[in-house]
Amino acid sequence: MQLSREQMLQAYRRMKIIREFEERLHIEIATGAIAGFTHLYCGQEAVAVGVCEHLDTDDKIVSTHRGHGHCLAKGCDVDGMMKEIWGSREGLCKGKGGSMHIADVDVGMLGANGIVGAGAPIAVGAALAAKLDGKGKVSITFSGDGACNQGTTFEAMNMAVVTKAPCIFVFENNHYSEHTGFEYAVGTQLDIASRAEAFGMKVWRADGTDFFAVHETMRDLLVYVRAGHGPAAVEFDTERFFGHFEGDPQRYRGEGELDRIRETRDCLKKFRASVVSAKLLTDADIDAIDAEVLSQIDAAVDAARAAPRPTPEDVLADVYVAY
């Protein structure tokens, strides 16, 4: 596994923060306290954390409408994110971004995006800047199986290959593009990665419900890209536990499907089983993090509820940038 005890504890803590952040939002949204659409990331935590554990603040990521996990894995502040989702002026984007548009440039998180496939061109631009900078940094775009069908994604992959930009295309195949199954919607029945391969880039594939598989795959991939070989792509097979959006009845799911994937493909359960059986961590270690994270999320929710909202005078602030 090639990770220290401290690294494993940190990885689990970050996955658990994402899980409890999203599980709590699932409850709070049902009360009507949070405005706007929200798309939860539960089930896919191993991908975000397995990717971002290799990055520093100078490596950039671009997210999707299902972006909370990517933000938290990249180091965005938990309180600032919760306040942003609640619409507070103390949020990361002063309450103007909300769930689908959280960004924090200071930690290399260039933004979530409500437009499917729109993150890929942004990531290529950031990758070209990194190439010109010459410091071996990379840019990563997260996309789902829906975004793999978008022309913007195709154009971005082609441009990345042509320019040898250090851009990594991370495809999280959670099997559903909104409400449509991957097997129906994606013409290349084999996988998504083969599409990226057709553009001339090297690709990897791994189990996105296994943190260690994600982490090791990204280690090898990043060595390749940072060495100046140009872009690369990876497809992680994963699952989402909630609907496409909060309120989605998920009638497209098969009978017992959600129960099955929560039981057999939960990345947190698999992580615990792996490290405990290998005697790398104990159940007590994991339980202590669980309790700590639950307390942290409770505090973040309380702070977000009490935080001030934007005023009418804030409407035009930060709309334009003065150069």
How would you describe this structure to a colleague?
α6 links the parallel β2 (about 140-145) and β3 (about 165-175). α1 runs antiparallel to α3 (about 70-75) and α2 runs parallel beside α3. The protein is of the alpha/beta class and about 325 residues long. The strands form 2 sheets. It has a 5-stranded parallel β-sheet, sandwiched between helices. About 45% of the residues lie in helices and about 10% in strands. The chain is globular and about 50 Å long. The chain has one domain (about 5-315): Thiamin diphosphate (ThDP)-binding fold, Pyr/PP domains (Rossmann fold), CATH 3.40.50. The model has no long low-confidence stretch (mean pLDDT about 95).
Any key phrases for this structure?
323 residues, alpha/beta, Rossmann fold, five-stranded parallel β-sheet, 7 strands, globular
Strand order of the largest sheet: 1-2-3-7-6
Order of helices and strands: HHEHHHEHEEEHHEHEHHH
* Total count of strands: 7
> Please, what is the CATH homologous superfamily?
Thiamin diphosphate (ThDP)-binding fold, Pyr/PP domains
User: Could you say how many structural domains there are in total?
Assistant: 1
CATH class label: Alpha Beta
Please bin the fraction of helical residues.
Answer: 40-55%
Shape category: globular
Category by helix and strand content: alpha/beta
CATH architecture descriptor name: 3-Layer(aba) Sandwich
